[in-house]
Design a protein that fits this description.
- The chain is of the alpha/beta class and about 210 residues long.
- Helices cover about 45% and strands about 25% of the residues.
- The chain has 2 domains: about 1-30; about 35-210, Vaccinia Virus protein VP39 (Rossmann fold).
- It has a 7-stranded mixed sheet with strand order 3-2-1-4-5-7-6, sandwiched between helices.
- Its main location: cytoplasm.
- Specifically methylates the uridine in position 2552 of 23S rRNA at the 2'-O position of the ribose in the fully assembled 50S ribosomal subunit.
Length: about 210
């Protein structure tokens, strides 16, 4: 009975995914995933990217955010992308495969590398493997967000942007409070292209308060 129930839900999800407007548009425009549209919506309102910008993309695979960012920063801009999964090459994107969350030496290497490189945008689309248990998923998501925040406050220019995906839950308000201690402006977005049933939200922070 459980197998049938799971199969029904899986088939329903696949059907909805195939019929999704943004999924169809992704195929038409040769975009790697529908996440491209979420970043575009936020950028349209906030103008995150400028020509020649340097960007860090955390949780970059399959590469849709990097695709969008490179279209805005031009050939003299550069995206440094990180993910535990492989990612096909993109022009003006330097991809690094590895687990910066659970491998402290990789994280420290990243931070050391950017000591002399100022970054205009740090964006994180990292997400945990979902268990379906909201409390567990929330804690795992916030852990990823904390890693992204650590990187952002170390490498961002004072007027840079930090964009992070997380999920609505018990740990969220505490995380937002932490961000407000570090950044002057903190905004919450739920893009139209984000599915209404999804608990994901995007937090955008800017204007670092001080050097850490």
């Amino acid at each position: 009975m459980l197998i049938k129930k799971f199969s029904f839900k899986t088939n329903s999800w696949i059907k909805n995914h195939i019929n999704d407007y943004y999924v169809k548009e992704s195929y038409k425009k040769n975009i790697r995933s529908r996440a491209w549209f979420k970043l575009k919506e936020i950028d349209t309102k906030e103008s995150l990217f400028k020509l020649k910008n340097k960007v860090i993309d955390l949780g970059s695979a399959p590469g849709s955010w990097a695709q969008y960012a490179t279209s805005k920063i031009g050939n003299q801009g550069l995206v440094y992308a990180y993910d535990i999964k492989p990612m096909k090459p993109i022009k003006n994107v330097i991809f690094n495969q590895g687990d910066i969350v659970n491998n402290s030496s990789l994280l420290n290497s990243l931070l050391d590398f950017f000591k002399t490189i100022s970054i205009n945008v740090v964006m994180s689309d990292m997400a945990p493997n979902v268990t379906g248990i909201h409390l567990v998923d929330n804690v795992r998501s916030i852990n990823l967000c904390n890693i992204a925040l650590l990187i952002a406050k170390k490498v961002l220019k004072k007027n840079g942007f930090f964009l992070v995906k997380t999920f609505q839950g018990t740990e969220l308000n505490q995380y937002i409070d932490k961000m407000r201690k570090i950044f002057v402006l903190v905004k919450i977005y739920k893009p139209q292209s984000s599915r209404s049933i999804s608990r994901e939200i995007y937090i955008l922070a800017s204007r670092l308060k001080k050097i850490f």
